[in-house]
Prior knowledge:
Helices cover about 25% and strands about 25% of the residues. By secondary structure, the chain is α+β, with helices and mostly antiparallel strands. It has one domain: q2cbj1_9rhob like domain (Jelly Rolls, Sandwich). A hairpin with a 4-residue loop joins strand 1 and strand 2 (about 45-50). The radius of gyration is 19 Å and the shape is globular. Bound molecules: 2-oxoglutaric acid.
Amino acid sequence: MRAIVLVAAHLRLSAALTTGPVGVNAALLSLPIGAEVEGFRSTHAFTAERISARPAVFVLRNFLLPEECEVLVAAALESGELSPAETSGGTDARKRCDVCFLDGAAPVVGALTREVAHLLLDADALTLPGTGSELLNVLRYEENGEFLPHYDATASPRVLTVLYYLNGNGATWFPLAVEEDSIDDSIDDSIDESAGGVNSRVTSRAAAMELAAALEPHRDGCVFEAHSAGDALAFFNFDERGAAEARALHAGLPVAEGETKWVASHFFQVPALVAPRETRAMETRARRMKYVGEETARRAAAAAA
Length: 305
Ligand SMILES: O=C(O)CCC(=O)C(=O)O
């Protein structure tokens, strides 16, 4: 294992850094694929390992303490707000899944948010206007529950996603992940060809989705599997130019028979690092998703009446 480079305070490496996604902490950025480092939260140590070049994906083992996981699950249950995910957020990609949202006043969430931002985001990103996190999404999947392939940053500048596996169950798949930082393959070509125009990104994302439909977990891309409660995954959704990373497509794989999967999704926005063209496209999609979300809520209400 290499020397400790992640600490719960800003740390700048003196070594020359490779280019990488916007917003990524310098210590993480310098990690080669397969290399593992030890990091420290305020209470305990964890390990970080990079498992994909593009998107930049990092496995964080033992990132949350088991008691933090228990507190988050209890807070979700006690909120009384766990409700079917199909009727929230204008997406039907989540199946057999309930969701609720915890704010910074909930136990663990406020302190965790601050620590994660300092550990995983670039120090400069923390000082930029608009940088912040969203409410913590807590997801409970039943057996066969899943989250179909999707992007996190379609309608908002979610530069960093952190997934916490709260009961040690579950797997997340990145169908288009690559170990080499190549920009010359077919997906990237389709993005380059589509450059120029708000809708072009939608087209290239659609191409990426189409490509992924022919791919399979455990054969293509990379799969992360939780080993124990408190494992986590961090990945970055925009490339070095601040353009949406088409390879950040990911899916929550179906939950095994008789199992439940608890996951919390933590989205960190850094609007100032996202390319202006991307921002305009996201605003358009956000308006469309709001409309779709309203339609979905209307239909759910009509069905319940
Ligand atoms: O449940 C999972 O494994 C993935 C969750 C996810 O993709 C998300 O919340 O964006």
